[in-house]
Each structure stands twice: as structure tokens, then as C-alpha cells.
Design a protein that fits this description.
- It contains 3 helices and 3 strands, in the order βαβααβ.
- By secondary structure, it is an alpha/beta fold.
- The protein has a 3-stranded parallel beta sheet, covered by helices on one side.
- Pfam families: PIG-L.
Length: 103
Amino acid sequence: MKIVVFAPHPDDEIYGCGGSILKWMEEGHDVHIVYVTDNRVLITWGKEHDQLLEEEAKDYINLSEDEIGKIGLSEAEEVAKAFGFPNSNVHLFKIHDQDAINQ
């Protein structure tokens, strides 16, 4: 069976249904992940909520949105590789978080 998991942001697939994804893959299903956004909203959110960030995350505040997006997508690709996804089963829409509602 083909199963498609939509992740609004990179890492949402792990928090939302990571265990199920592993189970489906072990059962031989054709699992695809669609990453809708690339986490660029993090930079805007971080600047507004700096006091809430942990000490080690404060370095991200000085990065551009594009740099944050590249990190988010890179991490998504690393997770997909660790899970054993073929590249053809990982789909990156690269939509800015604030624009996703308008797409």
C-alpha cells in the first residue's frame, strides 16, 4: 500500500507518527513524506520569543531565513536517510511557512 505522510515542518513527521512510519516500512509499505515548509518561520518566531529559547538555540537568531530553511531541509533529508527512505519518496515543497496557507 502507498502511504503519504504530510509534515507541515521538518521533524513533524517524527513527532506525529515516527513509530507508525517505521512500522509501515517494516511491513513493506511504500511510504512517502511530503515536507510542506522548510522551517523559515523559525527565524521570525525566534526573534519574537528570544527569551523562551534555550541557550544553545540562540545562535539561530542571527541566521537568515534562507539559512534556517537550508538547515531544516538538510535535517529532514538526514532523518529520511536514517529511516531508510529512498530519495524518490521524500518530497520537499520548500514553501515559506507564512505562505503555506495561500498556496
